[in-house]
């Protein structure tokens, strides 16, 4: 068969499912990295079967036979004695298994099938599974050939044995929903961990953790940001026994995130961060817990989304998003903790800000006037100077630990003052081993000074309590005008929804047709812009005489799915 | 029901712009979703043909409004103001019409009404196309070509517009144009609000 005929055969044939045991992969890895400049090879041990219904071939690789043999930079030969040694190994160590194929490395070249490889594949009239791997490029190719010389593409999976020890004591159920929010696609994955312990184990666990677990069982915490601090906070929350967690992040987990993502694994590469983090946390949780990972921009979910939580922790790099979350928390009277790291004079500094549910100040006040100019600021750990990168994880763990400490005190009701906001600034240890007095500073914000203006508190003082309106977006916008008219009693040509005040960044800033105000005029038809607004959000509505705070819940047809 | 001043103010702005452009017939209306104002200038000489058609300027409705008896103007970003010809969606023939932060927008945003109306006049008459704006600003929508070609085509169209429309000579001087617009705007809104 020529190369083209083989490739055509692969296109027409059924895909083969291949399950590789970690043990076999470990052996291959050990051998190929001994000398990446030269080719080497080995044999697959396992069994081959066929799915009776679909006819799809199934390959199970349980072990691998490898000798410390190397070829040249461009060639490796499977000699007769190598094959005989493999057969003897199988007879001695793997009864019931067979020699089912071979693998070889491509040294400094990428993984591809050479003409020599194609010739080798056609030599034996047997079911064979072949692989070529490249240690220098980290790539691999796999093909399965059946007795009739039909070549099949392969789908490889790791048959992991790491959790067998807990096979019947723990289960993780998952449910994923895809939908839309604020005009953006959203993926929501719910993980439920069920842990079962023996009576003796349960007794021991209860002796240590029953008190906190009972108090934290019904608590629901939102963690925004699945970066460095987000990973750590999720880990600490799960181990503390918080009953329900939700993680929101809009990014995917890439290889450059690996050094700063304590919870994520290699298998999560390329996955959205939030669902991946939720899954890893659910898997490692020592307690029964429910964790939801939402791959979305928190600004698309709307402030109404925050209402269901007992505490919100924001560990995001964007100043705008922190501000957005804080304003939402103030409107719903939710405690909010925000934390982050930065550098100061070449060394680390970080802060944790805690706003209790009835805080008398908001983030705008703590950041100082002119915060709007800083909305574009990003303080990502990856943006810190290169020479400090090694310290990022260690220092962030201190900040995450402080944040979790405050969070637990808040959830367990151990902070009595529900009006005073607090800030802790932590500086990295200097050249000496001990911290000096200035290393940790604490601030209190017990009242808003006279004459201080705040957009939020001005609106809350001047407006009536927030009113809720429910509107079907497929209906003409004029009907929303009617609702606003009957609620405000003002008969004006148009009401204006101030998107900027409502910090609706996706609609207000990120689109080319940027709008800061959404008009709600009398007698107007349906408006597609409404689809880009969050499902549940609070807006400052401008009337003629005064402003109004309106919670707008949007509904729509079936395809207008609500994942959150 | 209180009077809808947004459209009145947009009409005044369009009237001043039309006057500067030699008395073009114009109209102002809301977009179907009610979020935008569409100013339409008729008999506008189209680029690359002898025909005349409509030129449209689309911007947010909340740019002009009256609240508690005060006329309000909301400064807008360049991306919020769009120019079309013949129909909405078809970009006006101009070398850098949709380039954000371009020198033709004088600092990236409009602070005063006069700035905004002056920009409409300068864009429709192509006065804001200069050697710097095309070559240094490196902006080109491609509608009139790219680089020097865009500049040559823009100059030819600019000359044609000045001749066929009979634009006021002061539109070539940005400061004079702004002063002129400012005075007209102030007197017209005073009349409008007094009448109210």
Explain what you see.
The complex is a heterodimer of chains A (564) and B (196). Chain A is built from 14 helices and 22 strands. With 564 residues, chain A is of the alpha/beta class. Chain A folds into 3 domains: 157 residues, Cytidine Deaminase, domain 2 (3-Layer(aba) Sandwich); 278 residues, 3-Layer(aba) Sandwich (Rossmann fold); 93 residues, no CATH class. Chain A has a 10-stranded mixed β-sheet with strand order 8-9-12-11-10-13-14-15-16-17, sandwiched between helices. A 7-stranded mixed barrel of chain A has the order 1-3-2-4-5-6-7. In chain A, strand 21 and strand 22 form a beta hairpin. The two termini of chain A are 54 Å apart. Chain B has one domain. In chain B, helix 1 packs across helix 2, helix 1 runs antiparallel to helix 5 and helix 2 crosses helix 5. The longest helix of chain B has 22 residues. The radius of gyration of chain B is 16 Å and the shape is globular. The model of chain B has no long low-confidence stretch (mean pLDDT 84). The chains are: A alpha/beta (564), B alpha+beta (196).
Q: What is the CATH architecture assignment of the largest domain in chain A?
A: 3-Layer(aba) Sandwich
Overall pLDDT level of chain B: 84
Sheet bearing the most strands of chain A, described?
10 strands, mixed
Structural class of chain A: alpha/beta
Average pLDDT of chain A, rounded to a whole number, is: 86
Helicity level of chain A: 25-40%
Cα Rg of chain B: 16 Å
- What is the β-strand count of chain B? 7
Write down the oligomeric state: heterodimer
Give the arrangement of secondary structure elements.
The complex is a heterodimer of chains A (564) and B (196).
Chain A: H1 3-12, E1 16-21, H2 22-32, E2 41-50, E3 57-65, H3 80-93, E4 98-105, H4 115-121, E5 128-134, E6 139-145, E7 151-159, E8 170-181, E9 184-195, H5 199-216, E10 220-224, H6 228-240, E11 244-249, H7 273-284, E12 289-295, H8 298-301, E13 311-314, H9 319-331, E14 336-344, E15 347-355, H10 363-367, H11 389-411, E16 421-427, E17 440-445, H12 455-462, E18 467-472, H13 477-488, E19 494-498, H14 505-508, E20 517-521, E21 536-542, E22 547-555
Parallel strand pairs in A: 1-3, 1-7, 4-5, 10-11, 10-13, 11-12, 13-14, 18-22
Antiparallel strand pairs in A: 2-3, 2-4, 5-6, 6-7, 8-9, 9-12, 14-15, 15-16, 16-17, 19-20, 19-21, 21-22
Chain B: H1 5-20, E1 26-30, E2 36-45, E3 52-60, E4 64-67, E5 70-73, E6 82-85, E7 87-91, H2 113-124, H3 131-136, H4 148-165, H5 174-195
Antiparallel strand pairs in B: 1-2, 2-3, 3-6, 4-5, 6-7
Helix pairs in contact in B: 1-2, 1-5, 2-5
């Amino acid at each position: 068969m020529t190369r083209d005929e083989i490739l055509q055969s692969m296109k027409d044939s059924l895909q083969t499912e291949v399950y590789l045991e970690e043990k076999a992969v470990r052996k291959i890895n050990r051998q190929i990295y001994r000398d990446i400049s030269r080719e080497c090879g080995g044999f697959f041990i396992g069994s081959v079967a066929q799915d009776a219904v679909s006819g799809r071939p199934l390959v199970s690789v349980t072990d691998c036979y490898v000798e410390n043999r190397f070829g040249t930079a461009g060639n490796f030969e499977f000699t007769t004695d190598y094959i005989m040694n493999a057969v003897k190994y199988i007879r001695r160590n793997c009864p019931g298994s067979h020699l089912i194929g071979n693998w070889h490395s491509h040294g400094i070249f990428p993984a591809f099938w050479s003409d020599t490889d194609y010739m080798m594949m056609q030599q034996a009239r047997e079911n064979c599974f072949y692989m070529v791997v490249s240690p220098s490029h980290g790539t691999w190719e796999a093909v399965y050939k059946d007795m009739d010389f039909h070549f099949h593409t392969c789908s490889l999976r790791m048959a992991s044995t790491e959790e067998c020890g807990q096979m019947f004591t723990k289960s993780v159920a998952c449910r994923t929903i895809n939908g839309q929010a604020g005009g953006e696609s959203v993926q929501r994955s719910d993980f439920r961990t069920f842990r079962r312990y023996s009576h003796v184990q349960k007794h021991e666990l209860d002796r240590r953790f029953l008190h906190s677990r009972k108090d934290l069982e019904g608590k629901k915490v939102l963690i925004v940001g699945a970066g460095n601090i987000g990973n750590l906070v999720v880990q600490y929350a799960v181990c503390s026994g918080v009953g329900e967690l939700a993680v929101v992040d809009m990014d995917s987990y890439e290889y450059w995130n690996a050094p700063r993502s304590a919870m994520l694994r290699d298998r999560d590469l390329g996955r959205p961060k939030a669902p991946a983090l939720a899954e890893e946390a659910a898997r490692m949780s020592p307690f029964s817990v429910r964790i939801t990972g939402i791959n979305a921009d928190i600004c698309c979910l709307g402030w109404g989304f925050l209402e269901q939580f007992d505490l919100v922790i924001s560990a995001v790099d964007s100043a705008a998003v922190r501000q957005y979350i804080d304003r939402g928390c103030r409107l719903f009277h939710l405690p909010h903790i925000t934390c982050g790291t930065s550098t100061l004079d070449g060394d680390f500094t970080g802060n944790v800000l805690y706003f209790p549910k009835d805080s008398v100040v908001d983030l705008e006040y703590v950041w100082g006037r002119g915060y709007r100019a800083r909305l574009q600021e990003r303080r990502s750990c990856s943006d810190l100077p290169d020479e400090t990168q090694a310290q990022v994880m260690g220092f962030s763990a201190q900040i995450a630990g402080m944040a979790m400490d405050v969070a637990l005190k808040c959830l367990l009701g151990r902070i009595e003052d529900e009006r005073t906001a607090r800030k802790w600034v932590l500086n990295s240890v200097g050249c000496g081993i001990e911290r000096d007095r200035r290393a940790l500073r604490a601030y209190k914000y017990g009242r808003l000074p006279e004459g201080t203006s705040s957009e939020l508190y001005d609106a809350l003082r001047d407006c009536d309590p927030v009113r809720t309106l429910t509107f079907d977006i497929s209906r003409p916008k004029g009907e929303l005008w009617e609702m606003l008219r009957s609620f405000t009693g003002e008969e004006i040509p148009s009401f204006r929804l101030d998107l900027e005040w409502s910090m609706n960044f996706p609609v207000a800033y990120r689109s080319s047709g940027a709008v800061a105000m959404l008009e709600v005029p009398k007698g107007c038809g349906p408006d597609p812009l409404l689809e880009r607004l969050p499902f549940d959000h609070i807006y400052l509505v401008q009337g003629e005489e005064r402003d109004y705070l309106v919670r707008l819940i949007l509904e729509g047809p079936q395809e207008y799915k609500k994942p959150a | 029901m209180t009077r809808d001043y947004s459209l009145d103010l947009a009409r005044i702005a369009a009237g001043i712009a039309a006057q500067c452009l030699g008395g073009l017939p114009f109209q102002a209306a809301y977009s179907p979703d009610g979020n935008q104002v569409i100013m339409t200038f008729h008999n506008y000489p189209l680029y690359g043909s002898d025909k005349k058609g409509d030129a449209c300027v689309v911007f947010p409705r909340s740019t002009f409004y009256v609240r508690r008896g005060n006329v309000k103007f909301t400064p807008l970003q360049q991306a919020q103001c769009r120019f079309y010809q013949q129909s909405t969606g078809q970009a006006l023939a101009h070398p850098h019409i949709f380039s954000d932060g371009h020198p033709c927008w004088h600092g990236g945003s409009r602070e005063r009404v006069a700035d905004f109306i002056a920009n409409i006049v300068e864009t429709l008459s192509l006065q804001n196309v200069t050697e710097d704006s095309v070559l240094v600003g490196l902006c080109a929508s491609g509608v009139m070509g790219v680089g020097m070609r865009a500049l040559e085509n823009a100059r030819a169209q600019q000359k044609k517009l000045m001749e066929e429309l009979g634009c006021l000579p002061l539109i070539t001087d940005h400061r004079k144009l702004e002063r002129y617009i400012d005075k007209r705007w102030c007197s017209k809104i005073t009349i409008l609000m007094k009448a109210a």
